[in-house]
Amino acid sequence: MKITTTIAALLLCTAALASTPHKYRLVWQDHFDGITYDNLSWSKIPRGNADWKRHMSDADSLYAVHDGRLVLRGAVNTHRDADTARYVTGGLYTKHKRTIRHGKVEVRAKFGSAQGAWPAIWMLPDAEIKWPEGGEIDIMEHLNHDTIAYQTIHTYYTHVLKKDQNPPHGSTLPIDRDGFNTYAVEILPDSIILSINGKTSLVYPRIETTDKGQFPFGTPYYLLIDMQIEGSWVGKADPKQLPVEMEIDWVKFYELE
């Protein structure tokens, strides 16, 4: 009975937070109108050991700006004499350049589908905080040929303590798989609101708890956009279905008024 009451209270809280209007002020936007990305706002994501960045590359062939869009590519590596990675992928982030503490981030994007393709739009704390203690906001992740996108919150509370259903930390919504969709997050003092095409997918509230790391949000966060290939979640890639691309029409940052 106590568990049922707690869940009911959380659902009422979630509904109230989602329906509350918030006022925002546009502070930065990028419509990719030039011939390359703005290096005052963006940097290439370096390669690392984690699943999502073990194929990252700074090869120019993986990055393009044309017709008002940023294009990031994932491909079979054809130059393995210089780089032994089987695949190479392009990704940009705004780390130490563009951040939001409380506000809203919107990204209009579309991406190709392929076995092993894992495009993502997400956010991490700008300060060097050990993951997952600083939190992670996954505004959009897409797997293979799915017709849905995933939106997820990761914290010490959800990942290490495994308390990912009190409150729920992830959800999905259908997307136009072959067209543009608008993915958004609102980072508020009392909640994180995730949406796709204006429809709320998830409200993750701050709750009263003595457990560690339930709501680490409220520090500056930066944006990552990357065309990932392979990983323990998405599975193995089919090289015959590559290359694959993701296109970004625009990015907007708003501050909470």
Helix content: under 10%
How does CATH name the architecture? Answer: Sandwich
The helix/strand series, from N terminus to C terminus, equals HEEEEEEEEEEEHEEEEEE
* Large-scale geometry: globular
- The chain-level mean pLDDT equals 93
Question: What percent strand?
Answer: 35-45%
Distance between the termini: 40 Å
Given this structure, which CATH class is correct? Mainly Beta
User: Would you give the CATH topology?
Assistant: Jelly Rolls
By helix and strand content, what is the structural category? mainly beta
Beta-strand segment tally: 17
Radius of gyration over all CA atoms, rounded: 18 Å
Number of domains: 1
Total helices: the number is 2
Outline the low-pLDDT stretches: 1-9, 14-18
Instruction: Report the biggest beta sheet as strand number plus sense, adding barrel if it closes.
Output: 9 strands, antiparallel
How would you describe this structure in keywords?
257 residues, mainly beta, Jelly Rolls, 9-stranded antiparallel sheet, 2 helices, 17 strands, 9% helix
